[in-house]
Amino acid sequence: MSDRYAHYQQLKFDRPHPRVLRITIASPLKLNAMTAILHGECSRIWRDVDADPTVSAVIITGSEKAFSPVATWSMNARPATIMSFACRG
Predict the structure, then answer these.
(1) CA atoms of 76 and 66, how far apart (whole Å)
(2) Full strand arrangement of the beta sheet holding 20-25
(3) CATH classification of 3-86 is 3.90.226.10, yes or no?
(4) Mean pLDDT of 57-78
(5) Residues 2-22: tens digit of each pLDDT
(6) Looking at residues 65-85, what average pLDDT do you find?
(7) Domain-wise residue ranges, the chain
């Protein structure tokens, strides 16, 4: 895994397939509740992913039973970044 993602504390990363990055939310709070650290990481991750030429797709998951992508990601990700990333070959 690239050092590009080493500084994240509450987001974990692995590669289930070439060019696919899986991001796992690993909040220390019950049911992966948002922390201040996690909020910042959710805001910053898309810049790192967008700058990573080895990633063509992203899977977002949680490490606990509950996972809410709407509350966690939609307020933080910029649509233009997601669209340009999704179109990358």
Answers:
(1) 19
(2) 11-17, 20-25, 57-62
(3) yes
(4) 66
(5) 588 999 999 999 999 999 999
(6) 51
(7) 3-86
